[in-house]
Protein 1
Amino acid sequence: MKSMDLQEKLKKSGLTGNEAIVYLELLRLGSINGSKLAKKVGLDRTLTYQLLNNLIEGGLVSYIIKEHKKHFQASDPINLLNTIKEKEVFIKDLIPELKRLEIVKETEQEINVYEGIEGLRTLMREIIKEKSFCSFGATGRAYDTLYELPRITKELAKKRHKARIIINPKYKSHRMLEMKNIESKFLDIESEATTTIFGDKISIHMIKEKPIIIIIKNKEISESYRKHFELLWKIAKR
């Protein structure tokens, strides 16, 4: 019964059932040649030699030559740890490689199109949620269209909300430039559309007879537009 328990434990340690039988027999018998061992364990001679070779590779069996024959003997059971240590070293080397792999996440994105005054109000609410924004192609029309915008800009100033805008020099005298915490530069580019970058969103709005506002939520796109803004900011004039 004890032998069966040891076989099961050896199997859990990584040996096959037959390898466990052969190894236990060698521990009991000491040095023995392969043919006699096969008879002792009741296994085919060829199979027994295959098992012995497996155990030799695992460091659990060694042999000596006596009278021109190999005599096999069990090695110290502590060598059962060899495969575990080998795996441990392998896994320790593997872990940094696995950690270096970039987790590919599907980019969260959303596109919304709004029309009219309420669409502008929606845009303002989204911008207010962020600590800052940058905008180019500003015309001041949103400021003129929304009666509450001057009040909103005062609230933003209290919250130290910061903004940078690039506008055409022809709007140099527009009252939107009087807003606090807003830094402005001028670039002589004609554009009817205003692009604003805030958080992981960008908006493109055009205000003529009927305002139209497109808000895109996409981190990669917003970062690309932010880089584009920075290039324009460098060449724009104060």
Note: The first strand starts at residue 32 and ends at 33.
Protein 2
Amino acid sequence: MLIKVNDKTWTVASASDTPLLYVLSNELQLHGPRFGCGLAQCGACSVLVDGKEVRSCVTPVSAVKGAITTIEGLGTPENLHPLQKAFIEEQACQCGYCGNGMVIAAQALLAKNPRPTNQQIREGLNGHLCRCASHNRIVRAVQKASKEMS
């Protein structure tokens, strides 16, 4: 089966019912999307499929029909995406476990609403769990990236 991830086409050998997260991690060695709960409730596994946020832990690879973007596809260490840069500058993630999913969700939000209010950011990231209590810094990072991306 062929899938497109981060602007590259891959042939994957996994069974069609294999969760996308396992294909990304085990076959493609992309470790940005993380296993959190396995139930699509925490957001750590989030990726973009044609710009829309998808929980890869519960999405069979065969169900993905569009282009997949992981955190690795947003920017590079040499050329960070504005969201990645803002998350670093605002120290938005303490442990870093939820951060990749938060950045992916923020990207989906900003694609729909380039200038969200604080409340809209909170609502847009509501399905993501962060146990470090970095929520205010995360909101500031999304606001900062929004200004830079506009």
Note: The chain has two domains: 2-73, 75-149.
Protein 3
Amino acid sequence: MLFKEIHLSGIKSGKITLAFRRWQKASVKAGSLIYTSIGRVEIGKIEAVSEHDISDKDAQHAGFPDKEQLLKSLNRGGSAGTIFRVAVSYHSADPRIELRGQAALPEQEFADLERKLAKLDRFSKQGDWTRSVLFAIKENPHLHAIGIAKLTGFEKEWLKLNIRKLKNLGLTISHPVGYELSPLGNAYIKMRLAKNHGCFIGT
């Protein structure tokens, strides 16, 4: 679930407490947390509504001046699908920001990362992928997903989805164009290289 920056500011300040979306079916669940540029946004009650159920006050709580402007936004891509009213609120800062800024990696935390990355490899149909992708990003900072895909042999959309998993571990940083390793990601690779005497890929 994506939000415009102007609406995110309103959510963080508490002025915006609702969001309206037109979906075939609800794409988020009540109680889930969405990572955004302002931190984590919590999803509250979700209910299907008709255009007649929406009031000007609802529209204002969603960051629009009135119902008419809200409906224009909802109908911009066509009127197919159901309108959902979603309660939203600011939850907390993004914990990944503090995590990825960590430049030193204690032995136990390194071991925990090793286990998590091994699990990502084990449950992937692509086989072992985490280390080759991390190494490609390290050697090619700010390279876009298509470029990383060509270097690693993985399909672009699959790669983008799975780099997000590395980001959730605090290992990568996403930019408007491309990616780079976080301080934590660089610390992990440094320790991995040291433990394997300079052999990174395929170890």
Note: The mean pLDDT is 91.
Protein 4
Amino acid sequence: MRERWPAEGPRWDAEIIATAAALSFNDLATTGKLHPLTRTALDRMWTVQQKDGGWNWLKCDWPPMESDDHYGVTLAAIAVGVAPEHYAETPAAQQGLAGIRRYLQDNPPPTLHHQAMLLWASSYLPDVQTDKEKAATVSQLLSLQKPDGGWGLATLGNWQRGDKSPQDTETSDGYGTGFVLFVLRRSGMSPSEKPLQRGVQWLKTHQRESGRWFTRSLNQDSMHYITHAGTAMAVMALSACEDSKTATP
């Protein structure tokens, strides 16, 4: 970013949002201060925001992250919400957030996964979901917990696999379990509540020798990239559930 963006520019609009989000989380977890590069990335998001309040996101048929524009909007909202030093209150952010709210009002989340992304975003920006919507999302997520205590990513949407084979909706996985646990903690659920304790137990007993938590690709079985994100979500969930207070990231 420091060298390539000034010389060549970002490769995609999605790169700007993803970079801004990663840097915002890093700043919060380390110095608690907004680094100049983080501010640059956040401010640059608004320069490519479209008139409808969204962005031209990557749509490569790799759900849940690269299959629709809605994901990019919620990730941008989270990036702004988590940014330290009240970045969300700056004039640029306020104008951009108005666009985000307009997009979300006009474009309901297409899947439960994206409803959960909104629930996560609402922990920083409370008005992106109503109290009724928040409660409904929590209820739907809890209803999908499996007998073994985990969750399966494929149950959070209606995505089609590239080879047209059926999704595996029976098996718990790292992303589904980690993501749902983390979002439920962000919603205010206590780690002492039984569904969260059962989810934590699933994570603690399903880490592989490699250190990862496996998640099957929703697209094709030759490339399970979602396992990387699933492993990150599992770590975030475990960290959040070890804290007696609501998770801070």
Note: The two ends are 23 Å apart (CA to CA).
